[in-house]
């Protein structure tokens, strides 16, 4: 990629004619901060700034788009070395950063163009006759595969309009087909030489785009789905179940939101499917996903539809409206159809609705139309507050669930939501019950983490701020000590006790535990959450700590359930 000769020189960006002149000026002392702060620190500060005002995000995207346009490379660099065993050139990682930025700015088609260049150079490589998945480039190609998935998500977002999803232009169709053709050619090439096809997830995701031709999955992947890669011993299933609308579901769902970003790790389809199968065999048969969680729907759908016990595997997905849209019968039907195509099914077990702007009351109409669609078995909400949930219920719509955050640190559902759930017989599906991983043995007797450390994610920072408002690190240690003592009695972990405490609320149907399918799994640990019960003395010990907290301050600072996303 072509670079300016002076890497530290500022890039001149055009300023809108309507913008005041001061918008282009940066105070010299402020610029000193920008020029000298470590990159990770600068990123942390910027993320914090984005949380101050939604308009900052819009301006960041606009300026980033201008920067990407101003620095567009004139030529395509070489991504791989030549020789007996190709390796990645530094230019590939620069190129990857660029197309990921394009995705983030909503320029999905532009990102696909750059990815197509990578695939074309990949096709020109000459590989050794025998190459195992342990060799150096395999992990890189798994990441590139995940990037293809993300580019499809960016394209779908780019196609959204106020009247629904628009049709692609002729040029856009050409861009998509060019990438798809490259993936298909790569698949054929791999089959001809007897090697593993490295872009299975990306190809599957692209196939699900409207109007794209389907390609049969490789026999290798199908075989890995049908035949588990381990021996599962027969054992009694101790996982509790609950009635949720028309369905009977386990009280622990596996959450697939980690599919939304390669930052959480990447895996091949066969690795992912082996973990899916292990969870199902253990009794974890319910999965939570969304239309914007990368290829979660597609990968899950392909797995489930290939299983002999597919009817026993429960799919909870989402219909999320983040941008202004005019709700019509056609728009809602099209979205439901898209979900069904993605999960490879005729019926959605649970469709959860998220609506961004409460000022626009169309969320009631949307919920009515979803309820009227026979292809949706159960209708739920996601991150709705009590007031708006009540509005929907009082309009005569039947809602079975609301997915919200709930933990020993975040007690917001206990303030208003609980009474409404009991009154209307709505159940909560809870996430964040382990407070971003802070309610775990690993943090017992440990000092407060450095929130600016490289290993701290935005999720960590979010929950740490919540802990600070709730009572601080010292009080958290008292809570962890109490949970550890209770766990010792039952031979379970702090996380098990924290989850059990949430499940013991009568208005909670299930907790959602994040699952990094194909990367790591905690099946045995999660099962232990159902091996014991909390007695009155246990709950009383926990309550002693909670009484010292400022849980009401959390409610006051963050608002009712879901307010942090608005």
Describe the structure.
With 566 residues, the protein is α/β, with parallel strands linked by helices. The protein has 21 helices and 12 strands. It has helices spanning 28-36, 39-50, 54-70, 90-104, 108-123, 137-158, 170-193, 200-207, 219-226, 269-282, 296-305, 329-343, 362-372, 386-394, 417-424, 458-470, 473-490, 494-503, 523-527, 536-546, 551-558; strands at residues 160-161, 164-165, 241-244, 247-250, 252-255, 286-288, 314-321, 348-355, 376-382, 401-405, 427-431, 508-514. It is globular. The two termini are 38 Å apart. The model is unreliable at 1-12, 15-23 and 215-235 (pLDDT under 50). This is Pyridoxal reductase-like protein. GO terms for molecular function: oxidoreductase activity. Residues 252-543 form the NADP-dependent oxidoreductase domain. Keywords: Oxidoreductase.
């Amino acid at each position: 990629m072509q670079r300016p000769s002076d890497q530290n020189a500022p890039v001149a960006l055009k300023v809108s004619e309507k913008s005041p002149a001061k918008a282009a000026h940066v105070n010299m002392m402020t610029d000193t901060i920008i020029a000298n702060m470590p990159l990770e620190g600068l990123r942390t500060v910027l993320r914090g700034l984005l949380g101050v005002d939604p308009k900052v995000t819009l301006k960041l995207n606009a300026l980033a788009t201008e920067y990407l346009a101003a620095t567009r490379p004139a030529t395509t660099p070489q991504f791989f070395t030549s020789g007996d065993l190709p390796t990645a050139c530094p230019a590939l990682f620069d190129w990857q950063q660029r197309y990921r930025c394009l995705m983030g700015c909503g320029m999905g088609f532009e990102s696909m163009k750059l990815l197509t260049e990578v695939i074309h150079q990949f096709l020109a490589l000459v590989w050794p006759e025998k190459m195992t998945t342990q060799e150096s480039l395999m992990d890189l190609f798994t990441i590139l595969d995940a990037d293809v998935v993300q580019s499809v998500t960016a394209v779908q977002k780019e196609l959204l309009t106020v009247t629904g999803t628009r049709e692609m232009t002729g040029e856009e169709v050409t861009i998509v087909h060019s990438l798809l053709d490259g993936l298909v050619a790569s698949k054929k090439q791999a089959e001809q030489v007897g090697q593993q096809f490295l872009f299975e997830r990306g190809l599957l995701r692209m196939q699900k785009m409207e109007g794209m031709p389907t390609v049969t999955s490789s026999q290798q992947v199908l075989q890995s789905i049908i035949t588990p890669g381990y021996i599962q011993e027969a054992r009694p299933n101790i996982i509790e179940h609950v009635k949720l609308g028309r369905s009977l579901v386990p009280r622990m769902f596996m959450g697939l939101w980690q599919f939304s970003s390669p930052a959480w790790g990447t895996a091949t389809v066969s690795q992912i499917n082996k973990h899916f199968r292990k969870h199902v065999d253990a009794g974890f048969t319910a999965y939570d996903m969304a239309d914007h969680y990368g290829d979660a729907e597609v990968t899950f759908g392909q797995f489930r539809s290939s299983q002999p016990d597919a009817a026993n595997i429960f799919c909870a997905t989402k219909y999320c409206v983040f941008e202004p849209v005019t709700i019509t019968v056609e728009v809602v039907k099209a979205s439901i159809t898209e979900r069904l195509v993605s999960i490879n099914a005729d019926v959605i077990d649970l469709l959860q609705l998220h609506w961004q702007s409460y000022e626009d009351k169309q969320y009631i109409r949307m919920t009515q139309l979803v309820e009227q669609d026979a292809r949706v078995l159960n209708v739920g909400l996601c991150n709705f507050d009590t007031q708006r949930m009540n509005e929907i219920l009082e309009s005569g719509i039947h809602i079975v669930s609301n997915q919200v955050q709930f933990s020993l640190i975040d007690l917001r559902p206990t303030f208003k939501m609980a009474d409404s759930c009991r009154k209307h017989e709505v159940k909560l599906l809870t996430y964040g019950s382990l407070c971003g991983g802070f309610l775990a043995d690993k943090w017992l007797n440990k000092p407060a983490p450095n929130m600016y450390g490289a290993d701290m994610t935005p999720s960590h920072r979010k929950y740490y701020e919540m802990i600070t408002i709730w009572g601080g690190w010292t009080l958290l240690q008292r809570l962890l000590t109490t949970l550890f003592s209770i766990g010792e009695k039952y031979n379970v972990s702090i996380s098990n006790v924290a989850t059990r405490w949430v499940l013991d609320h009568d208005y909670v149907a299930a907790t959602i535990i994040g699952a990094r399918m194909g990367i790591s799994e905690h099946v045995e640990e999660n099962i232990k959450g159902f091996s014991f019960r909390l007695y009155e003395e246990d709950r009383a010990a926990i309550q002693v700590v909670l009484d010292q907290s400022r849980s009401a301050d959390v409610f006051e600072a963050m608002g009712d359930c879901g307010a942090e996303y608005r």
